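Hey, quick one: can you model this chain's 3D structure?
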Amino acid sequence: MKKTLSLCAVLLTGAVMMACAQMNNRNKGAVIQELDKAAFIEKVVDYENNPQVWKYRGSKPAVIDFYATWCGPCKAMAPILEELSRQYADSVCFYKIDVDKQPELASLFGITSIPTFLFIPAEGDPRMTQGAMEKDSFDRIIREFLLKSPGR
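Sure thing. Here's the predicted structure for all 152 residues.
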């Protein structure tokens, strides 16, 4: 009886460790940085010193998710953004801005509906989309608009 219980404990411990490893691997590489006003000015655009001209400060294209913690569609988009941030970790920066904590940034972009996504190419003007979207549509915008690569 003791051997059976010991074997069950070992198997259960192994199963728990495997489940934890799978969860860690799922989140591995997902890098979505929360932006406040100072970080936005540093990494995206200095709208205070140069309010008339869009001059992106990053070296890689970027996606900014304007969201709120209470927003259902925002919560539904979170795993898609995490997955895409892992997929494009080497070529696209992913940021998020909580509109409740950063009302000035939300106002700057006229955010009236969330989620809203700002797609910023390395060169050129950004594009904004509102509302939740399917992963394939989001991926297509990244490939075609940000990376200028129509194929998979």
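One thing worth noting: The mean pLDDT is 84.
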